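User: Study the shape:
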Amino acid sequence: MENLDLDVITIGRSSVDLYGNQVGGRLEDMASFAKYLGGSPTNTAAGASRLGLKSAVITAVGDEHMGRFIIEQLEREGVDTRGVKIDPQRLTALVILGIRDHQTFPLIFYRENCADLALSVDDIDPGFIRRARSVVLSGTHFSTARVAAMSRKAAEICRDNGGRIAFDVDYRPVLWGIGGHGSGEERYVKDGAVTEHLQAILPLCDLIVGTEEELHIVGGAADTLEALRAIRAKTDAAIVCKRGPMGCVVFPGDLPDSIEQGLRGPGFAADLFHVEDVLVNSIYVMGLRSLARLLGNAPEAAEFNRDADKTRDALLTKCWDEEVGAFFDLSGVAEKPLKEVTISSLMPLVLEDLPRPIVERLVDTWVTDPKHFWTPYPLPSVPASDPKFMPGNPRGFIWRGPSWINTNWFLSHALRRHGYADLADTIVVKSQECIEKSGFREYYEPFTAEGLGARDFGWSTLILDM
């Protein structure tokens, strides 16, 4: 065996995934998108690297901006990109996605004649494959003869070198030519030809991973246990059945009489960027109260007020820190307070029924103190006393110090309602001076009123309503 300096090489599709930012809407209604690394093999390689493994990926991208994004993102994740081919004639694959709810994710694949579908056996470097302890194959790359031959060659080289082969079923019917372009969300369509194709791969494999639906297509049966038996007849590989929030079940040998009798790995709550934001929830309460007032005596008004009361109480019991005298955002399912004072810490002032002692504490401790938020042009997004305070945006950290007209709009009205008319008037005057000096900018330097960020920015026109 050659020098095994890689734990795993993943092989298959790559893409740039463009997720619609308007969660809950139709793809037709998306107005903006966020860009992410996409494709099961590339994400597997990135995930393996995060877990401490030395990973690499074999795929192909176009010689353009999106291809460079994929390579750069993989390198940021610590993935070896020597196996990423740059195709000067074809484009990087794209996927357009939306999130309607927890169960519905409409998507469109743009993969016709894309770069990774043009890979061939000539793109496999045997020496590179022999450096890996394992190879992960993707079912999608067996959908066409050219890439199927390439994937099989890599697997055979790895096995001949004593390595292990994992098979990620990764079944998307539309990528096998089943259904129209608009059926990208569909995860299972029965097809005998696909089943036959996938079963031919099984003897190569030491590990097979798929959801219940993916195991159905490999086993050619709609019943999971029956599908598992069909797979087991073709291979002795360990089989992992992914079950979403229920975790997974592993079948390393003989199959039991029930799926539940396999080796079970429990599910766990995802805790990635799970933040309960004080600012958002404060504005949410404010909006509910406004709706209740507009509805008058309608039955729905009482419902809106009840929801507002629940959210207000949660802010007071979970987010208020009596020792510091500020509200803090909560992180993760454990709701750990993020003890960083920011403009968000002041936003519960917009609550009409915020207890008076808390109002006075926020105003006296934070709002009016020149060391914190009462700068020459208030109110900055973090207090001037914070070591991370950046009054401009030298490195693009736009919420590390500049003053914003939109937050000033919220807090000037809030202070006026709580009886601090003079403070509110000062914020209005200083906000107007920022605009007179620098125009309608996205945000402003809190000591000089220098305009920063985008020009002709719409929300700074809120000065007219302050």
In short: The two ends are 73 Å apart (CA to CA). The first helix runs from residue 40 to 50. The CA atoms of residues 153 and 439 lie 63 Å apart. The mean pLDDT is 93.
